[in-house]
Amino acid sequence: MNSAEFLKNVMASGLIAVAGLGLGVLSLAIPAAASAEELELLKPNTLVVTIEPYMPYTAMKDDKLVGLDSDILAVVAEKLGLKMEVSVTDFNGMLASVQTRRADITIGGIAWSEARQKVGLFTDPPYYSPPALAVKAPASFPDVASLEGKDLGTVTGYVWAKSIAQVPNATPHTFPSADSVFQDIASGRLDVGFLDPLLITYQQTQRPDMKVGIQYMKPPTAEQVAAHPDYKYFQPYMTGFYLPKQAPKLEKAVSDQIDTMYKDGSLATLITKWGGDPKQFLVPSPEMAAQRRGIDRPSDWNPPSIEK
């Protein structure tokens, strides 16, 4: 059999599919569920995406989607043979666009939570996020107890808003954007900001004059979480790409591609590109499997990992 006949036979068997944002790239071993005709898309062969400006996770620059989550989704869309149509909004608008099915997917450091999964679908985690604090040096907050009596902040709608509200004698603050959190830390009005870790490291490189640094806090113990249930958000958490409840086939197709990226090393490459440590971001903590088992994953589900 010559090479042309071999290619024809393989394509007929469904082992090779044309993919790539309209570029005609050949991609191997696309899952059968990833056929664009079978996915619950709002527009044919198009992935309607919403983001917020949230570098280094998501942003539009020169009409191009950039950032860690953006890079991951670009690989997924290429493998599924889909072009992307992107709209920019704020964090609450992102979630609402999916929950009301005005978008196929939203991305950008979105934490999995039981409440959010009730009104949407989460993919397998494209990465995990360790508990990180934005502080002004030389301040140090090694554990939850050190937060008591302090001014604590995060962005409105983020899961940490519940956690900081439970810290004894602390004053919780929520802000419309991460920029506002950084400004109040730099000015001394805020002691600690709870934000995604890569956002803090990105801020360090972009605005070294603000002298805002990053710290990793020791996660609360089981006893502390039992006493303050929302302390669970001070633990490492699973991120996810978020989709409408009406799109289970699309969610499965995206999750399959994410899982493949753990195995082929491409996720580790992207995490490193954007300033993260793959061992911190691509290895789940022990309790994560139990959080989703029987909720939105089977009872034997294990989170993807670069470790076997």
Structure, explained:
This protein is α/β, with parallel strands linked by helices and 308 residues long. It folds into two domains: 173 residues, D-Maltodextrin-Binding Protein, domain 2 (3-Layer(aba) Sandwich), CATH 3.40.190; 105 residues, D-Maltodextrin-Binding Protein, domain 2 (3-Layer(aba) Sandwich). It has a five-stranded mixed beta sheet with strand order 12-11-13-10-14. Strands 6-3-7 form a three-stranded parallel beta sheet, sandwiched between helices. A hairpin with a 5-residue loop joins strand 1 and strand 2. The two termini are 39 Å apart. The relative contact order is 0.15. The N terminus is likely disordered.
Alpha-carbon distance between the two ends: 39 Å
- Unreliable residue runs: 1-33
Put simply, the count of helices is 12
Overall CATH architecture of the largest domain: 3-Layer(aba) Sandwich
Structural class: alpha/beta
Total strands: the figure is 16
Enumerate the strands of the largest sheet in spatial order, edge to edge or round the barrel. Answer: 12-11-13-10-14
How is the quaternary structure best described?
A: single chain
